[in-house]
Amino acid sequence: MRVHARGDWRGQRVFITGAGGFIASRLASTLVDRGAGVVGLVRDTAGVRLLRLLKVDLAIEVVRGDLGETGLVQRVLNEYEIDTVFHLAAQAMVGVANRSPLSTFESNVAGTWRVLEAARLTPSVERVVVASSDKAYGTQRSLPYTEETSLDGSFPYDASKACADIIARSYAVSFPLPVVVARCANVYGPGDLNWSRLLPGVIRAAIEGHDPVIRSDGTPERDYIYLSDAVEAYIRLAESLPETSGQAFNFGTNRPESVLGLVERVLELVGCPGLRPRLLGSADNEIDRQRLSSEKARRVLGWQPQVPLAEGLATTVAWYQRYLAAEPAREALSV
Length: 335
Known about the structure:
alpha/beta, Rossmann fold, seven-stranded parallel sheet, two-stranded parallel sheet, globular
């Protein structure tokens, strides 16, 4: 592995699964800026559109395909002589997991072992970062979650992330493959075009002058982390290998915000005093309270969140205002 100073990725050959996703696309862009050669796996046309929107599509090699395709990942790893793998591909929606648990397990669990097995069999691969989630901890009496908290994900999405997490760490201790796991809080920021997620949906509704519809009763509390902080977390993890192999790291703020509180912040930023959230109280199979301790990441990786929630929300709302005001062609917007 070619070792450079922190943040210098010149000469590195990187493979990102789920590269057309909200976080992975920004990770790809950041690594390109730092000198890496990036190959991204994209399954759907929506992912290609997001890469194009963020001006990333021409800066990386885009491979179209699905993790379930036999031999695909191993072919890519070998042909592009990949040394670093970021596995972010997943079915990431709780509601979808509740409706379709088997497809979620296929994506999140089987997809993870396929990537890890391909990496294990590819001589050039020297480090793997796997995306888990704070949801893997499930419902706990004691908060915040630390890395020593048991993984107790019970609902389909939470269980799928817990399984992927355990499989990743199993590969690290069973084989000579450096693997580390990221457990991030809820990531938000510019460029998330999945309107069924809380923040994109609320922001769009407010900008368009509609009362935002909230599935829950507004009381669930979540820990929110800004996009650039999450991307830096993934990069710091890769740079920490092989010393941290087999470990997991939390990335959050330990400052939870209720759903209703977050919605009220958005409405104030958009400037819609007459709008009121419609609380359906119909959200099933979701954890009520979550927050993460990132003390280990601060101590071992030198990572701390840099963007406060108020600042991050203001930047995010401003981006969506520009995006939604753009022409139908949706010219590329900087994030």
